[in-house]
Amino acid sequence: MDSCQNAIQVLGILGTIFGIIGVVLALIFGVRSGRRDAKKDIREDAQNIGSVQSDLGYIKGGIDDLKTEFRELRRDQGDQAERIAHCEESTKQAHKRIDETNERIDKLTTRGERYE
Predict the structure, then answer these.
(1) What is the pTM of this model?
(2) What's the pLDDT tens digit per position in 39-53?
């Protein structure tokens, strides 16, 4: 019986050793897999950051274009405001001349003169 007990003890010890080896190997493979996943995540994050930076560059370019167009519109609006002011002044002068002409016509017609 001693030899059977010794054999059982040896098998128990071997089972324990194999169990410990299995746990150690599982830890090693888990750590390696985690590192590989971390590297993959870092690579994906870098690609995403690059994509976001590219999109931001495109948006910045669009904003710069809008600023340029806005400046041009503001300048054009200023030019148009000047032209409108000039037209208003000309219209005011034309009305004044029309009123003066109408007054002359009224004076001439009240005197019985003919206006030509």
Answers:
(1) 0.44
(2) 777 888 888 888 888
